[in-house]
């Protein structure tokens, strides 16, 4: 592995991240073609998952792909899906060498892409920036291997961890810059998820605004009894932007019908005492194809996800005001009996954002 390989792979990873949130259930892959020290093609997985990154980069390079090195952020696919295999396309274009971080976890590929390339005389180097690539593909890996999407839990709260006053006032705790940053984060996820309490209290639209993105994230609302306002923003836009509602199995048939008529997709989930089972919610979302879910609370849903130990990343926006013990806590009861049982996270970033602090944490293993 050389410094040159690392540099071009870093570029391919940056390009691949452009597809995050847009190409589920496929992974967001990046590809850079380099011929004689010159970049001749760049590509990333397109909205909806196709064309694949390599196809885009090869089309750009044309004849200049002959003899080039392809830096791809995942093993090139070997299967005949809706498009022909990328490894065949790389071979046909005369690519001399492929550099990738690791094998694909999709059973249809799983080493067969590398094998086909080597068999045709293409040199293959693996292991380049594998840690970084594993972070970027974490959602795709989790879905493929564990059947659930990656979960980022975002909370915007006061210095003392409150998300509203006792009377429910919450707009606004954090500033405009932090709220804008949230739209950028929503865009990089396949879905934005909230609990029913938040949907009722805030009447959110849960869309990405002012960023000109190719595909809006799915809106997911978790509501055991399907008690959501039929005249709110979510209901009004359910025909245009996907709205999925996770609910308990025994719900009022009229409500089911009303939401279906509005265009929502209903996902029945198993119960866990009085709440929906958090692991089952994620299993349903994984089954439906989601790889990256951005949960924006409220406290009850945040508590369920954390208690089930299925939060992969925490994003906190902390504002310089205090609300006091009577305010609504950001995270509901976890039922811990000792500190050892508390879900722990490792700090990955802190940054001032306007008058607030952004901090990001990743699940400690
Ligand atoms: C690549 N380059 O850009 C992506 C790949 O449904 P299909 O036919 O599009 O295949 C989806 C699978 O292809 C997906 O599960 C993963 O294994 C791979 N994704 N492969 O060579 C790409 N997005
Ligand atoms: Zn492919």
TrEMBL record:
Residues 3-125 form the CMP/dCMP-type deaminase domain. It catalyses: 5-amino-6-(5-phospho-D-ribitylamino)uracil + NADP(+) = 5-amino-6-(5-phospho-D-ribosylamino)uracil + NADPH + H(+); 2,5-diamino-6-hydroxy-4-(5-phosphoribosylamino)-pyrimidine + H2O + H(+) = 5-amino-6-(5-phospho-D-ribosylamino)uracil + NH4(+). Pfam families: dCMP_cyt_deam_1, RibD_C. Keywords: Hydrolase, Metal-binding, Multifunctional enzyme, NADP, Oxidoreductase, Riboflavin biosynthesis, Zinc. Pathway: Cofactor biosynthesis; riboflavin biosynthesis; 5-amino-6-(D-ribitylamino)uracil from GTP: step 2/4; Cofactor biosynthesis; riboflavin biosynthesis; 5-amino-6-(D-ribitylamino)uracil from GTP: step 3/4. One of its GO terms (biological process) is riboflavin biosynthetic process. GO terms for molecular function: 5-amino-6-(5-phosphoribosylamino)uracil reductase activity; diaminohydroxyphosphoribosylaminopyrimidine deaminase activity; NADP binding; zinc ion binding. NADP(+) binds at residues 156, 172, 198, 202, 298-304. Binds 1 zinc ion. Substrate binds at residues 170, 186, 206, 209, 296. Its cofactor is Zn(2+). The active site is at 54 (proton donor). InterPro entries: APOBEC/CMP_deaminase_Zn-bd, CMP_dCMP_dom, Cytidine_deaminase-like, DHFR-like_dom_sf, Eubact_RibD, RibD_C, RibDG_C, Riboflavin_Biosynth_HTPR. Zn(2+) binds at residues 52, 77, 86. Its EC number is 3.5.4.26, 1.1.1.193. NCBIfam families: eubact_ribD (TIGR00326), ribD_Cterm (TIGR00227). PANTHER family: 2,5-DIAMINO-6-RIBOSYLAMINO-4(3H)-PYRIMIDINONE 5'-PHOSPHATE REDUCTASE, DIHYDROFOLATE REDUCTASE FAMILY PROTEIN (AFU_ORTHOLOGUE AFUA_8G06820). Converts 2,5-diamino-6-(ribosylamino)-4(3h)-pyrimidinone 5'-phosphate into 5-amino-6-(ribosylamino)-2,4(1h,3h)-pyrimidinedione 5'-phosphate. In the N-terminal section; belongs to the cytidine and deoxycytidylate deaminase family. This is Riboflavin biosynthesis protein RibD. It comes from Sedimentitalea nanhaiensis.
């Amino acid at each position: 592995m050389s410094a040159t390989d690392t540099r071009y792979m870093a570029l391919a990873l940056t390009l691949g991240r452009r597809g995050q949130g847009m190409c589920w259930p496929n992974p967001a892959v990046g590809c850079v073609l380099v011929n004689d020290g010159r970049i001749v093609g760049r590509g990333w997985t397109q909205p909806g998952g196709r064309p694949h990154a390599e196809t885009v980069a090869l089309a750009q390079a044309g004849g200049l792909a002959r003899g080039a090195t392809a830096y791809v952020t995942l093993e090139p696919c070997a299967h005949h899906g809706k498009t022909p295999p990328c490894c065949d396309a790389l071979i046909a274009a005369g690519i001399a060498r492929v550099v990738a971080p690791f094998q694909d976890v999709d059973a249809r590929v799983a080493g067969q892409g590398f094998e086909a390339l080597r068999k045709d005389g293409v040199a293959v180097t693996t292991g380049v920036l594998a840690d970084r690539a594993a972070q970027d593909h974490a959602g795709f890996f989790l879905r493929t291997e564990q059947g659930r999407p990656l979960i980022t839990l975002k909370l915007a709260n006061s210095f003392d961890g409150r998300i509203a006053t006792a009377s429910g006032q919450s707009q606004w705790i954090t500033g405009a810059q932090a709220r804008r940053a949230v739209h950028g984060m929503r865009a990089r996820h396949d879905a934005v998820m909230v609990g029913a309490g938040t949907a009722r209290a805030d009447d959110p639209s849960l869309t990405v605004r002012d960023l000109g993105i190719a595909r809006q994230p799915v809106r997911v609302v978790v509501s055991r009894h399907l008690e959501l306002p039929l005249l709110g923003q979510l209901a009004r836009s359910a025909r245009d932007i996907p709205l999925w509602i996770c609910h308990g199995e025994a719900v009022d048939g009229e409500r089911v019908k009303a939401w279906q008529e509005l265009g929502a997709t209903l996902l029945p989930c198993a119960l866990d005492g009085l709440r929906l089972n958090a692991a089952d919610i994620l299993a349903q979302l994984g089954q439906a194809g989601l790889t990256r879910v951005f949960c924006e609370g409220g406290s009850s849903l945040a508590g369920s996800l954390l208690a089930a130990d299925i939060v992969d990343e925490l994003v906190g926006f902390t504002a310089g005001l205090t609300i006091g013990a009577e305010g609504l806590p950001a995270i509901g009861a976890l039922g811990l009996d000792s500190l050892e049982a508390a879900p722990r996270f490792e700090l990955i970033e802190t940054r001032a954002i306007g008058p607030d602090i952004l901090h990001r944490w990743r699940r400690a293993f």
